[in-house]
Amino acid sequence: MLRFDPDDLYALAREAHVAGLRIGAHAIGDVALTQLLDVSERLHREHPLGPRHRIEHFGLPDAGHLRRARELDVIAVPQPVFLHELRANDDRYVPDALAGQVFPLRAMFDAGLTVAFSSDGPVVRELRPLAGLRAAVRGAYVPGQDVTLAQALGTYTRGGAAAHGDPDRGTLEPGRHADLTIVGGNLFDTDPQSWPDIPVHGGVPADAEREAS
């Protein structure tokens, strides 16, 4: 169900774009993606100096959507856990001809998109990021659309920083903010099935902050 008339959507997007605000618009479906990419293309043409924008979910893209998103520098923000939680709905409602477009994560990377994964909490039941990692690496709707662990981790670090417009985070390099998450195990040496149960510790302890200062 489209929420906006194309001209109304463009007017709203233009107001944010010219003010320097990054837009995160939601789209699942080929028609919705086309509408948003049309808006992005018009913004780039008429106001080329604005910020990067993103599309939340980025569901059911075809090759044309992927190509256009790359050309327009749009960031894709899919939720890998949808591959698990929404699979029954996809089985029931998605035509066989579109099965390859059900969150085709590898195709997004192959197209050269900047990708940031998220949980979509609290809409979904499973909020643990490591469950999202497992879905991305082992849960593709059709064969060949899984991604590597390194790619998936990058979406939560470099991709997340890009989606938030924060160039000072996302990698461990001199001069970057030490925004760290500590995982209680080596994911590269662990069966993906057990990833969601690995403890995760976030933040920097107060003592460490005092020592750093």
Task: Please provide a written account of the structure.
The longest helix has 17 residues, at 30-46. The protein contains ten helices and five strands. The strands form two sheets. It has a three-stranded parallel beta sheet. It has a two-stranded antiparallel sheet with strand order 4-5. The termini are far apart. It has one domain: TIM Barrel. It is mainly α. Strand 2, helix 3 (63-71) and strand 3 (75-77) form a beta-alpha-beta unit. Helix content is 41%, strand content 9%. Helix 1 (6-18) packs across helix 2.
Name the features.
213 residues, mainly alpha, TIM Barrel, three-stranded parallel β-sheet, two-stranded antiparallel ribbon, 10 helices, 9% strand
CATH topology: TIM Barrel
Rg of Cα set: 18 Å
Could you spell the SSE succession in H and E letters?
Answer: HEHEHEHHHHHHEEH
**Average residue-wise pLDDT:** 92
CATH superfamily: Metal-dependent hydrolases
Number of helices: 10
Strand content is 5-15%
Number of strands: 5
Shape-level CATH architecture: Alpha-Beta Barrel
Regarding CATH, which class? Answer: Alpha Beta
- Roughly how many Å apart are the termini? 52 Å
How are the strands of the biggest sheet laid out side by side? Answer: 1-2-3
What would you call the structural class? mainly alpha
What is the subunit organization of this protein?
Answer: single chain
Domain Amidohydrolase: 4-193
Region (Disordered): 193-213
Pfam family, one: Amidohydro_3
Protein name: Amidohydrolase 3 domain-containing protein
